[in-house]
Amino acid sequence: MNQNVQPQRLISPLVQHFLDKKYCRNYTGVEGEKCQLVLLPFPSQNYQQAYYFAPQTMLDGDNAIITALEVLPDNSSELYPGGLSTLPTGQTNFPSSYLDRGVLYMSNLRREIIAELPLSILNRNNNGNKPCFVHFTDQVWQNCYVQFVSNTFPPNQPLAINVWYVEKQHN
Amino acid sequence: MNNLIIKRSQLVEAQFVGTPAAGKKYQFTEVPNISRNNIIIYGFEAFSAAQLSVTPNNNTVIAAADTDQICVTLVDSENRERIYQLPYYTAIRSLNGGFVLMVQPFVLNLTRSYVQLTDATGVSTNEVACINLYYSIVGE
Lengths: 171, 140
Prior knowledge:
The structure holds two protein chains of two kinds.
Chain A: H1 13-20, E1 24-26, E2 34-40, E3 51-52, E4 64-71, E5 102-107, E6 113-118, E7 132-136, E8 145-148, E9 159-167
Antiparallel strand pairs in A: 2-9, 3-8, 4-7, 4-9, 5-6, 5-8
Chain B: E1 2-6, E2 9-15, E3 25-27, E4 39-47, E5 70-75, E6 81-87, E7 101-107, E8 114-117, E9 128-137
Antiparallel strand pairs in B: 2-9, 3-8, 4-7, 4-9, 5-6, 5-8
């Protein structure tokens, strides 16, 4: 008997359908090939104002498939240290305690909303340390924005988001 | 073990209009983009005020302490109750180790879907039960 033959995995048709349609994937898998830290400053504190991201051509759907999103916590949690208290710009990170007041809107070229994502679900600390997997293929990064449902968030503390992506191949 | 991938999502909410009452059906508010039996949902996630204090429509989300008093029913395009009286608490991601509830994909009839209170204690008028639907477009 050939010892090198791997046993076939048994997998239910429903799970196979989910995998084929990219509805799910193994939670221990890598988030993406590349990662970009994006900062979103809030020059004012206005309720229900759209704070748009600066253009990032590499993160547009023309060039990349976004595979995971992660809001970096401010390292205030004793349970899950390892966030980022100070950003690369020297500014203080956005406090995690305010994440329950914000929603990230992913949008495409026609400004159609692809996804509405409350910021708290993008924080690994709230998800048993699991990343938030996504599969966005037609986003335009500068059309994506964050809105707050309260104007009590602190000024001059940008939101830090890790964007995991796979580059699209161009001929 | 697999976890859900978000391809598209939409926050929807069911508002407890009037004096909250146990057993009464509170239907989800219409969202024109997804209310035409035009989405296939494959997962969803519920929120308490601990995850989202107020919805983008400026409605207060139900308190974490009250999430064990709600059941969710999702109806498909043939008016079958595909998810019938699922405890809301079950669909809160942080209570499931970070796993999102996945369901056998079906075409959702949003405006016939509803939530019910099993106990109105502590629930205030005009609070909302808010869930995030993870879906793809029919034919996409």
